[in-house]
Amino acid sequence: MIQRIVNGRERGRVGMAMRKAMREGKLKEAIRIAEQWRSAGGRDWQITLNLGVCLSREADKRDSDAIALAKEALSVSRGHPAALMGSAEIANNIGHFEWCLDLLEKAEVCCTTNSQWEIIRLKTAALSRLGRQQTAEQTLENWPESRRDWRWLLAKGDALIQNNQWEEAEDCYRDVLRQQPGNPVANQNLALALLSQKKWDEGWKQYEWRRSNPRQNKKGPLSCLSGSWEQARKGTVVVIGEQGIGDQIMTARYLPELANECNHLIFQPAPRLMELMARSLPETIEIRHPQDPIVTTNGEIVVIGTGSLPFLYWKKQGFCTPCQQGYLIADPSRVDWWKHRLLDLSSGRPCVGVGWLGGSNGADHRERSLSREDIRKLTSNEKIFWVDLQYLPKSWQQKRANSAPGCRNVMGDPGQDLDDTAALIKALDGVITTRQTVAHFAGALGIPGAVLVPARREWRYSQNKNRWEWYRSIIICQQGERGAWSAAIEEALQMLTL
């Protein structure tokens, strides 16, 4: 009896600590708390479910773990409504939209008044991501008009984005912000809506609300571009690499201009990019590891993220780069080595690299990845030597053998050593890839290529006459229908001249 009370108290303590971390957006902390408790033998389906939700929200490619946890919670709870709802969120986050709808259908039978809206929200999100836009809109319209508040507007904006209705989505987010000026989701999504419409000046200002901005606090982004900015540049400016590797590559084009205007510039990119950036950027820019402490006696220190660089230099520089032929510099000796290696392997055939899996979670993977049959079609031309460039976590290596027929893995673990991966890409004759880091590497190295982008537009892949505006050596091949890649693949093969 005493042991049962102790276990109950411990379970309550763990559950409270976990929920607090989740409310504060500290997903890694919540995951650590739950996994530590479970490793010590603790079991509770609600904690199990919350762990699955956290894993599905985190971009650490643990989708299979999240699925297993959802199924465990459903089994132990015997299909409790809360387990159905939490599992539906997990399914939605990892791209299992059909499963999400199935779970919500079961949850509707026993739902409470409090969970009715959550069912509508999740169902609308799943339907819109499946391309079932009319049904998604009808689902939202079924919600009583008298009960439609800012949450309803956010859900409508999300559904509109999935259908490329950016102007209408912009109106939704502005309506939310008239009611709640500091709403972080509405501010972030408004930025995406503006940038996707090429409303760059207002969009970059609004983009300061992005979650990864190191100058965020509870009230929103801190200004670093007015008032004391001119004075601050007389001291030390630290630029932190934020978001993905591709974003850091894309925005690095603005660093030379910033270096010309400030007394001391320190750049802290992702560790895997340090060697490549040190070679590619002016010597006046000091490259430091992200965990290195910054100590200076030379005036004020101002910290900004790479995502703020367009805000600083868009009007002056736009899409332009220091070198139109590519501003990343691969190791020349490694480029030569790869050229000789590829010549031996290809027997003189043109060598084209392939990236086939994009995104950091299951929902992204579903939208931005090629199936085995898609890859087979892409690599069917035997007059070309197809090179696998896809980065995979170590636990996913089996996926390479199962998913990439026709591609030769010449590196062993592409993307692990980014400096050597850049040299390999530079040695290729061209690249065809989905929306992912490989595309940014090819463009920034000046390699001709094609990027396959989903039907839903995204501001990073803005195009002008089929050319990627951020990287002029790359053409854009966009889906006409969600999930259908055949036409885009055919276009890429026709437009890529070797």
Written overview of the protein:
The chain is α/β, with parallel strands linked by helices. It is 52% helix and 10% strand. It has helices at residues 2-23, 27-39, 45-57, 63-77, 81-93, 97-109, 113-129, 133-141, 150-162, 166-179, 184-196, 200-206, 229-232, 245-251, 255-261, 274-280, 309-317, 332-346, 362-368, 372-378, 397-403, 418-427, 437-444, 486-495, and strands at 216-217, 220-221, 236-240, 264-268, 285-287, 301-305, 351-355, 385-388, 430-434, 449-453, 463-464, 467-468, 474-478. α9 (150-162) packs antiparallel against α10 and α9 (150-162) runs parallel beside α11 (184-196). It starts with a helix and ends with a helix. The model is unreliable at 1-6 (pLDDT under 50).
Helical residues, percent? 40-55%
Q: What's the tally of helices?
A: 24
In round numbers, the mean pLDDT is 90
Rg (C-alpha, Å): 24 Å
The main pleated sheet reads as: 5 strands, parallel
Counting helices, strands and paired strands, the structural category is alpha/beta
Strand content: 5-15%
What is the terminal separation in angstroms?
75 Å
Describe the secondary-structure layout:
Blueprint: H1 2-23, H2 27-39, H3 45-57, H4 63-77, H5 81-93, H6 97-109, H7 113-129, H8 133-141, H9 150-162, H10 166-179, H11 184-196, H12 200-206, E1 216-217, E2 220-221, H13 229-232, E3 236-240, H14 245-251, H15 255-261, E4 264-268, H16 274-280, E5 285-287, E6 301-305, H17 309-317, H18 332-346, E7 351-355, H19 362-368, H20 372-378, E8 385-388, H21 397-403, H22 418-427, E9 430-434, H23 437-444, E10 449-453, E11 463-464, E12 467-468, E13 474-478, H24 486-495
Parallel strand pairs: 3-4, 3-6, 4-5, 7-8, 7-9, 9-10, 10-13
Antiparallel strand pairs: 1-2, 11-12
Helix pairs in contact: 1-2, 1-3, 2-3, 3-4, 3-5, 4-5, 5-6, 5-7, 6-7, 7-8, 7-9, 8-9, 9-10, 9-11, 10-11, 11-12, 12-17, 14-23, 18-22
